[in-house]
Amino acid sequence: MKKIRKKRKLTDEQKAVLVERITKAREAKKPAAQLSIHETVRNLPDDDIFSVKNVRGWIKNAKDKLSGMRSWKNSKEKGQASEYLVQQGYLHNLQAYLRDGVYRDMYYGEERQFKTKFKCVVMAYNKDGTPKRSVGVMYPDIGVYTIEMDNEVNGKRAVPNKKQVRKNGRGKGKRAPV
User: Where are the chain's structural domains?
Assistant: First the structure.
């Protein structure tokens, strides 16, 4: 048998005192420290692309998408199961980013519509002292290293209209007519 709880009968003065007490308590309460979020992510301003506010919005969107894709998990239709797994991986990467501050995905945004770019933090050098570089990476001394810069440095040249050589399956080294 449940106990029935009687409502307290308060006078207007008692209500005013209680309201005042609870407003003081609410004012004294500090904002959440967000200790579960990595320090580097926590300290980003709200207008940053990878701020906590933006990433939480992306997580919410990814969860909504995943809930609509539940039936795709074991689907035999071409691409549905893989799309489900891609979305699930994106959600896990976003959650891991908030936890440890390392962004692991190649794409970002609410719909994964933007591709990440790489930035060189510490330079690597060849044995002869020249810097090692990769195309598409942002370097502190020259900016983004393009394929034209790579061709200039390494002496490569573009070969226009190069015919493709194909092998047929009958023998090794035989060429099929082009």
Answer: 39-115, 119-154
